[in-house]
Amino acid sequence: MLSFTFGGKNSFTDYGIIVSSRPSIPSPKRRVSYINIPGRNSNLIFDEGTYDDITIVLECTSKDRNNLMDKMDNIKAWLFEAGESDLIFSFNPNKKYRAQVVNSIDFKTVFRCVLDFPIIFNCKPFKYLVENTLSTINQSATEVINSGNIESDPIISVYCLGDITLKINNEQIKLIDINGKVIINSEIQDCYDDEGNSLNEKMTGEFPKLKTGVNIIEWIGTVSKVEILPNWRWL
User: Domain 135-234 belongs to what architecture?
Assistant: First the structure.
């Protein structure tokens, strides 16, 4: 039985929805521009190193002999009120997409008690582990292995005092006059404390990424520990 979980609810157990077939899941398109320059052979290629969203279409069926209209309303409320939520398929339960329903759902009534309808999800380009496990590092020069197939945007918490140099592979981040915890969030490109106050003025360097394979986490200065929420992801 094919099903999916979205907004914390399961399509089959909560709404009796049957997914008719395993959906086609496209790979994200890489953003590359080609510029034609007169008098020059070939095109000039500009690769942004980023990806477009993907679209996943599900063909669904649901039955109800007594309250078909109520079921229709309940399904619409669930899908639209969930907004952007985790989308998990039963055939790949350990990974999730960040998705949102983007179509006006066209319900077709069949035999008075059956609904046929498509659901179209707009998804972020990558899929992520359902269990995004926090890693705690207590010693400099520790290895962290990226199990995904593309670099990730981690959320890194540094517990430190004074001026710190955090080094991830060959990239350095300098933290100035810190007393306590500083959070370096590469997903949203922001640096802040535990209460959400901005610390961007106390950070210099690029927001870090964790490459595929082995990453070396090092530091100089007084650091009690580093916590990494890795956000491993796959194309």
Answer: Sandwich (2.60)
- What are the tens digits of pLDDT across the range 108-137? 877 777 888 999 999 999 999 999 999 999
Helices (H), the chain: 11-15, 68-81
Closest CA to 74 of 17, 135, 144, 157: 17
Residue 3's nearest CA partner among 84, 92, 73 is 92
How many other C-beta atoms can be found within 10 angstroms of the C-beta atom of residue 179? 9
Q: Residues with Cβ < 8 Å from 137, sequence gap 6 or more?
A: 144, 217, 225, 226, 227, 228
38: its two tokens? 């007169």
* Interatomic CA distance for residues 154 and 173, integer angstroms: 14
Quote the tokens at residue 228. 């990494």
DSSP classification of residue 130: S
Residues in the chain: 235
Whether domain 4-129 has CATH 2.40.30.200: the reply is: yes
DSSP letter at 150?
A: B
* 46 token code pair: 């500009």
Closest CA to 143 of 62, 230, 74: 230
What digits encode the pLDDT tens for the residues 65-92? 677 788 889 999 999 999 999 999 999 9
SS3 of residue 194 by DSSP = coil
Measure the CA angle with vertex 191, ends 188 and 193; round to 5°: 125
pLDDT at 113: 78
Same fold for the domain at 4-129 and the one at 135-234? no
Measured CA to CA, the distance from residue 8 to residue 86 in angstroms comes to 8
